[in-house]
Design brief:
By secondary structure, the protein is mostly helical. Helices cover about 55% and strands about 0% of the residues.
Length: about 90
């Protein structure tokens, strides 16, 4: 492509506007001025799906075996014990 951007824009600006442009502009302005349309998406369906997924996750979590925590033992001989780090 040897055309310069300025030449391309100049040729574009010299062309007559598309004949359907007025209809598009009027259509856009009519839609902007119109009151908002009610939502027609599947809100009820997505809500029900979210509930089913949440209950499924809860049920699957209830089926897992509980793990037992290991008791944590503090030893005063640790070199990184909080008492040694604070200079005590």
């Amino acid at each position: 492509m040897t055309d310069d951007l300025d030449q391309l824009l100049g040729r574009l600006s010299a062309r007559a506007p598309h004949p359907g442009l007025d209809a598009v502009s009027a259509s856009v302005l009519d839609r902007v001025a119109a009151p908002p349309a009610p939502r027609r998406d599947a809100f009820l369906l997505t809500s029900a799906l979210a509930v089913v997924v949440a209950v499924g996750i809860g049920f699957a979590g209830g089926l897992t075996q509980p793990t037992h925590a290991q008791p944590l033992v503090f030893d005063a001989g640790w070199s990184l014990a909080p008492s040694t780090l604070l200079g005590g």
